[in-house]
Automatic annotation (TrEMBL), chains A, B:
<dbReference type="InterPro" id="IPR031804">
    <property type="entry name" value="DUF4743"/>
</dbReference>
<protein>
    <submittedName>
        <fullName>Thiamine pyrophosphokinase-related protein-like protein</fullName>
    </submittedName>
</protein>
<dbReference type="GO" id="GO:0016301">
    <property type="term" value="F:kinase activity"/>
</dbReference>
<dbReference type="GO" id="GO:0044715">
    <property type="term" value="F:8-oxo-dGDP phosphatase activity"/>
</dbReference>
<dbReference type="InterPro" id="IPR015797">
    <property type="entry name" value="NUDIX_hydrolase-like_dom_sf"/>
</dbReference>
<keyword id="KW-0418">Kinase</keyword>
<keyword id="KW-0808">Transferase</keyword>
<dbReference type="Pfam" id="PF00293">
    <property type="entry name" value="NUDIX"/>
</dbReference>
<feature type="domain" description="Nudix hydrolase">
    <location>
        <begin position="134"/>
        <end position="283"/>
    </location>
</feature>
<dbReference type="InterPro" id="IPR000086">
    <property type="entry name" value="NUDIX_hydrolase_dom"/>
</dbReference>
<dbReference type="Pfam" id="PF15916">
    <property type="entry name" value="DUF4743"/>
</dbReference>
Amino acid sequence: MSFSNLDLVNECDSFPYYQTNPSLYAASLSTYYSLRVHGHDYPLGYLLPSVAQVFHNVPHWDLDSTQRTLTLIAGHNADERSEAVRQTLLALRKTGHFKVLEKWRDELYAVYGRNKELLFRVERSASPLLGVVTYGVHMTAYVRVPEEEGGMKIWIPRRAKTKQTYGGMLDNAVAGGMASGETPLECLVRECAEEASLPEDVVRARVKAAGTVTYFYIRTEKAGGETGLMQPECQYVYDIELPVDVVPRPGDDEVEEFYLWSVEEVKAALARGEFKPNCALVMLDFFVRHGVLTAENEEDYIEIVARCHRKLEFPTL
Amino acid sequence: MSFSNLDLVNECDSFPYYQTNPSLYAASLSTYYSLRVHGHDYPLGYLLPSVAQVFHNVPHWDLDSTQRTLTLIAGHNADERSEAVRQTLLALRKTGHFKVLEKWRDELYAVYGRNKELLFRVERSASPLLGVVTYGVHMTAYVRVPEEEGGMKIWIPRRAKTKQTYGGMLDNAVAGGMASGETPLECLVRECAEEASLPEDVVRARVKAAGTVTYFYIRTEKAGGETGLMQPECQYVYDIELPVDVVPRPGDDEVEEFYLWSVEEVKAALARGEFKPNCALVMLDFFVRHGVLTAENEEDYIEIVARCHRKLEFPTL
C-alpha cells in the first residue's frame, strides 16, 4: 500500500468541507452537538451525540437536544468556568465511562473566544471529548549537505513502541502540546530540551518560525480511546538548520531513536504511511516551503497547500 | 490611516466564509449565479446577476433564473467550448456593454474541471465576468545583509502610474498571469525576463518554489472596470535570493522603478496600504515563512496564515 501526499492530507484533515461537499458537511453538522459557553453565541467545538448525552443533567451544563447544543452555564470568568469543567471531568473520570480520560495528564489546554479572550481551561486528555481547538508546536530539524547529496538531510525520530498513541510511528524532530499560558516559542524551547536534548542557546539562535499548520482531524483507533472524536488543531511550525555536530538525542522515553534521512528517504517513509498523521502534514508543509514539492512534481499541489492551512470554524488564539 | 496585516488580508480575501459567517455566505450565494459546463454538475465560478442576465438567449448558453445557473451548453471538448466562449465574448465586446472587455489582452486563461481536465479557455480580461479561478506566479526577490542590518533587504517595484490597474501601487518583484498551456516555472522564467530583466540562468539556478497563495477577491474600483466581480485566484509563490550584483531593472513600461528596502520599510509601506492587494498577501506569506511575522509579534497570526491559503469552492488545477 502506497499513500499519495493527498492521501496523507485526507487522513489528517478528515472533517468534511462545506465548500466542496455541502451535503456531507450538513449531514455531519446535523449529527453533532456544538459546544458553547453561556453568553458566547457561537460554537467552540463539536461533540459526538454519545458524548454530549453524558452531560444530561450534569451540574454546570445545559444540554439542548433540539438545538443540539451543549452549553457551559457555570461561572462568570475563565477561572470559575475552568473549575466547573474540572469538577465535571474528574467526576466523569471516576465513572470510567470515557477511555480517553484514562490517560489523564494533568496538563491544561486553553479554549479561546472570538475576541481571543480565554474562556476556560480543560484537561488535555478531555479536549477531544469536547472537540475544541488545541495548539501545539512542531519543529523540523535539518542539516545542509552538498547539492549533489540532495541539499539537506532531515532528523526524524521514531516514537517509542510503548507510547499509548501512535506507538512506533515517525514524528517531527520536536513536537508537543501548548499548555495554557505558554507562548509557542517558550513551549518549543522546553520541548526541544525534553524531547531532543537540544541546548536552549542553539535553539534560540537558530530556530525560525515558519507559520502554522491547521486541520480538522477525526480520531481513529491509532489515536487510542474513543474513535470519531473531533480534534481541530493548530500547530505552530518551526524550522531549525542544525550544524553537523549538534545531534538530537532522545531526552525522555517517548522517542526510540533519531534517524538522519535524505529527502528521498523521508518521502518513502511518508508513502509507506509511517508518519503520525499530523507529523506527515507538517513534513509536507516543510517540503512545500523548501521547494521539494512543486507544482511540477506534485499533481495535488494547490489542494495540499490549502488543506495544510484550514480555516477552522471555531475561534482561534 | 494605518492598515493592520489582517486589514490587508480582508481587502484581498474579501468573499465571505461559510465557516465563520454562514448567513452572509448564504445571502451572497443566493444573489449570485453559478457558472457551469454542461455535463459537469458543479460550480466553476460565480457571476453577478447583472452579468448573468446578459447571457439570456445568447447562443451556446443556458440561463436558468430559478436555479441561478449559467451553463455553457456548446461543444463536446475543450477546443469547441473555448471557441463558443470566444465567439460570445467577441460579440459582447462589440456591444461595449462591459468595461472590463475594453482591456482585451488576447491572452487565454484555462478553466479546469474536477479531474483537473481542461474544460475551456477564456480571454483573460473576461475571466472576472465569469468569476472563474485564475492562476499566476509571484516572486519575492531579496538580498542577504548582515543580521545587524536586519538580515535581508527586499526588492520592491512600483507599478507605472499609467497602468490601468492599480497604477502607482507597489508590487512583488515579478508577477504575472499564467496563460493556458504554460507551467508555473516556465511562466515565472518568462516574466522574470520581461518584468525585471533577470537572466534566465540566474533565475533557474536560484529560484525556490514556496507554495501557493489562494484567496477569493471581489473587485473594487482600483481594479478598473465593473466592481463587485468575483475573482478566486491561485498564485504560485516563489522566492529568490539574489547576489548583490544582480539588480532587477524594469524590462517594460509596466514598472516605474525598483526599491531595495529593509523589512521595516516594507512593513511601513504595507501599513500605508501602498501594495496592490494580492501582492500584500504574497508579502505577508513571505514574512510568515521567513519568521518575520511570528505568533509573538502578530496577534492575527493563525487567521492570516489560513486566509492566505483559502480552500476555494471551485475545482483547481
